[in-house]
Amino acid sequence: MFDRFEALPADALLGLIVAYRDDPNPQKVDLGVGVYRDEEGNTPIMSAIQKAAAKHLETEDSKTYIGPVGVAGFVDGIKSLVFGNGSPIVADNRIAAIQTPGGCGALRVGSELLNRDAQDLTVWVSDPTWANHEPLIGSAGLKIQSYPYFDKATGGVKFEQMDEQLAKLGPNDVVLLHGCCHNPTGADLSFEQWQQITARAEKQGFIPFVDIAYQGLGDGLEEDVKGFRYLAERVPELVLATSCSKNFGLYRERTGGLMVQTANATQATAIQTQIQDVARANYSMSPAYGGYLVEAVLQDDSLRQEWMTELDAMATRVKSLREGLVEKLAQRGVSKDFSFIREQKGMFSFLGISKEQVHELKDKYSIYMADSSRINVAGLSTSCLDYVADALTAVIDG
Ligand code: LMR
Question: Which of 43, 128, 144, 295 is most buried by a 10 A CB count?
Answer without folding.
Answer: 295
